[in-house]
Amino acid sequence: MRLLVAGLLWAAAGASQAGCDRPVYLTIDTGHMGVAPLIVDTLQRHDVKATFFLANERTQTVAGHPEGSTLDDAWAPWWKALAAQGHDFGSHTWDHLSWKADEPGGFVFKGTAGPKAGQVQHLTTTQYCAQLAQPARRFMQMTGQPMRAIFRAPGGKTSPALIAAARSCGWQHVPWTPAGFLGDELSSERYPNAALLQRALKQIRAGDILLMHLGIWSRQDPWAPAVLEPLIVGLKAKGLCFATLREHPDYAAAGKAPVQP
Asked: Which of 40, 125, 155, 223 is 20 to 30 A (C-alpha) from 233?
């Protein structure tokens, strides 16, 4: 009888620990992928699920993957494995297009990280919706699973008109919270890893949406995975837990990504 009661108490404690009543939401945008395998190893070790936002960005050579792009055939098995692990996925636009301005009939963008980096593009609402849908189609090809109808504008740059245009074709925008800006794209000289870690551990609270990348070209002292592991450990020590945007009250209801604009 005592063994039965002890077993029930252990099971109840395990169920309580499995719940996440003070969540933070780790979101990861694509990048040069140079540290991507190390990041995922860290997530696996600490049983953390994240939400990834995918764009077709230029990549480094890493772990047997040649230079290319984040959504090419060389990386397809990696994304498929990640999807099988239970992570969440959204769009980051195909060409990593950073909004510059609204204009009559559409918007002005500039490519900032993909093969079309530096190019200015003038897109209608329909064309922008196609930019959002293309990563979703590619994700389905790579993984056999649907992406969800959430997106993050590169750099977080939007306008009310852009958000409305995306909503008109079924997409919901996901920004990050101020304390959730982890700083991995900032200068290493001005913002060393130790300072960024200290700031994050001090400021992050339950409910925050955190932002990091799968590698930043301009940062000399890579933020990830050096800061990621102590950040996860430190936040858990403060009683916080990690959840994907599938569990976020504002984004849980997002359905399957519309693959047609």
From this structure: 155
| Burial class of residue 19 in the structure, from the number of CB atoms within 10 Å of its CB (0-12 exposed, 13-18 middle, 19+ buried) | exposed
Residue 7 confidence (pLDDT) above 60: no
Q: In the beta sheet, which residues pair with residue 150?
A: 172
Give which of 134, 104, 102 is closest to 116, Cα–Cα: 134
Q: Can you tell me the mean pLDDT for 236-247? A: 97
**Interatomic CA distance for residues 219 and 205, integer angstroms:** 26
How many angstroms separate the Cα of 186 from the Cα of each of 105, 164, 169? 34, 30, 33
Please give the C-alpha separations between residue 101 and each of 86, 143, 158, 161, 209, in angstroms, as whole numbers. Answer: 36, 34, 9, 10, 26
Yes or no: say if 209 and 176 are a contact pair by the CB < 8 Å rule.
yes
Whether pLDDT at 18 is above 70:
no
Crossing angle of helices 228-237 and 193-203, rounded to 10°: 20
What pTM does this model have? 0.91
The answer to whether 78 touches 84, Cβ cutoff 8 Å, is: no
Write down the number of H helices and E strands in the chain.
7, 12
d(CA 140, CA 27): 20
